[in-house]
Amino acid sequence: MAGKREENPAGSSNNLRGDVLRVLGVLKVVTVEQIQQISAPHLSYRHTHKPTPSKRKQARTASHIGALSDLRKHGLAENGGQLPGGDRLRNLTPMGLKAAARELGRPVGEMGNPARGAGRTGASHPMTGNKAVLALLRPKPDLAQLANEPADVLAAARAAVDAPDGLGPVRRIIAVGR
Fold first, then answer.
1. Which residue, 97, 168, 90, is CA-closest to 136?
2. Which residues contact 89 (CB under 8 A, 6 or more apart)?
3. How many CB atoms lie within 10 A of CB 25?
4. Residue 147, beta-bridge partner list
5. What is the pLDDT of residues 71-123, one digit of tens each?
6. Is 80 in contact with 28 (CB distance < 8 Å)?
């Protein structure tokens, strides 16, 4: 186990790092919260007992921040600037783009280029695009992951599950596009 911690000091799992690579491979530049909303939508309904929105967001995104930290250690991801509200932008390095292509099952030549410099100008265009993608995907929370949450939280998650379907998870969209 000690070797595993040396390789990934933030302790992220292969699955979590894979989720981050897939989201970054499709959207190119994202916030950690957007990664969480797409890859683990059930977390949006957790941590309601935290006293402030900031602490709730920190708790929801902690595992994805760890995965990004491990990906940065391996030279696959980097910080890409900051939004005016303070959220940091994340993007892939050229090596990370190759890793994302493997995760998505796509040829590297179809992946486009890494997003470089988007954060210097506040990334308004990519962030608007990401909001549109989230609206189209409509990621559904896994209710089984929320079984121990309070009734009001479960009701909100159930409403999201019962809402009209979007395009579905990023992984499925990539498979359909082939």
1. 168
2. 29, 30, 31, 79, 80, 81, 82, 83, 118, 119, 123
3. 23
4. none
5. 999 999 998 888 877 888 899 999 999 999 999 999 988 888 776 655 555 55
6. no
pTM of the model: 0.79
DSSP assignments along 75-128, one per residue:
TSEEEEEE-TTSPEEEEE-HHHHHHHHHHHT--GGGS-----STBTTT-HHHHH
Helix (H, G, I), strand (E, B) or coil at 34: helix
Please state, in angstroms and rounded to a whole number, the distance separating the CA atoms of residues 4 and 48.
32
Tell me how far apart the alpha carbons of residues 160 and 163 are, in angstroms, rounded to a whole number.
5
Q: What tokens were used for 126?
A: 């990519």
The conformation of residue 26, written as its DSSP 8-state character, comes to: H
